[in-house]
Amino acid sequence: MQLNDLADKVIDGYELTRNEAIELYHAPLEELKQSASKITNHFFKEAIELCCISNGKCGKCSEDCKFCSQSRRYRADIHETTLKTVDEFYEEAKRNDSRGVHRFSIVTAGVRLSKAELKTVALAYQKIRDNLKIACCGSLGLLDYDDFVMLKEHGMTRYHNNLETSPNFFKEICSTHTMAQKEKTIAMAKKAGLEICSGCIIGMGESVEDRVDIALELRKLQVDSSPINVLNPIKGTPLEDRPYMQADEVRRTIAVFRHILPRTVLRLAGGRIIIQKYFTDLYNYGINAEITGDMLTTAGLTVENDISEAIANKKVLTKIEPLA
Q: What are the tens digits of pLDDT across the range 88-128?
């Protein structure tokens, strides 16, 4: 594969095949970096977007996702909570809005929220939309079309539902729901007029081919934003003994995602503590957004740290709108 011309071809609309993407993963790292950087700079210039998540309802989840500390099937030591109130959500959003964060996402454990819980979340979105600049996102499970319409009317603009891994590897990670259910949910959210955020966790034991297949699946779904989580093995979960990913594996994976998803926002998500020594280098491989602050049940990096690092790397902190 001639990497000298690949970035220009991708910018002009060329879509990599699966075999090409697998070959690309093994290309010389410096050439891969330069090619990915050229694509990112063409579509996004120096923009970096920050989002944050609110652990809106934690624990007691019925599902068996092997990476997750919130499953009631495992023995992870977490603090279980019921759904936060409208005012609690609003104060979190207000605090992050004042610090320059661009998006605020409410994330809840479980297959889906009840209708009463969804109404609470909707009223929180409405209050945030009417009083703050920060955009409202949500990760609330396998909802239906009417739920999405209602949430959009109240101020939610983007819905998050991770594919987690490839179609082939999904059954190794979760048996209580399917990727098809996730993709149906994403389709209904899109039909309701919402932007889509969907990504993956890497480092769970998947192959290079699986990582390529994740990106190809996300391309098929035409997602606006794709969070890339690096597995942070949590004690008490089935993946607690998984070794950390090597830095160059992370770099290569992100660069391949950038080539397959040239117009998609690629967002550093979970596992930021693991990659904190080199996370700014990932700007050169395709990253142009970050989940800032703490994750759901693990620590992240502070807003102040992310802002100072972005400025030091001559990035422009701004909300990124979906590309036409």
A: 999 999 999 999 999 999 999 887 899 999 999 999 999 99
Tell me the C-alpha distance between 297 and 78, whole Å: 7
Tens of pLDDT, residue by residue over 204-259, are: 999 999 999 999 999 999 999 999 999 999 999 999 999 999 999 999 999 999 99
Q: What is the Cα 275 distance to its own chain's centre?
A: 16
Question: What are the backbone dihedrals phi and psi of residue 210, each rounded to the nearest 5 degrees, phi first?
Answer: -60, -40
Return d(Cα 81, Cα 316) in angstroms, integer.
36
Q: Taking the CA atoms of 294, 295, 299 and 305 in sequence, report the sign of the dihedral they define.
A: negative
Q: What angle do CA 302, 140, 91 make, to 5 degrees?
A: 45
Q: How far apart are the C-alpha atoms of 56 and 29, rounded to whole Å?
A: 40
Tokens of residue 44, six digits: 């996004």
Q: Alpha-carbon distance 89 to 106, whole Å?
A: 8
Q: Give the Cα separation of 173 and 165 in Å (integer).
A: 8
User: Which residues have C-beta within 8 Å of that of residue 218, sequence separation ≥ 6?
Assistant: 163, 198, 199, 200, 226, 260, 261, 264
Residue 117 tokens read as 């819980």
For residue 88, which of 122, 40, 118, 54 has the smallest C-alpha distance?
A: 54
Residue 76, burial from CB neighbour count under 10 angstroms (0-12, 13-18, 19+): middle
CB neighbour list of residue 13: distance below 8 Å, 6 or more residues apart: none
- The pTM score is 0.95
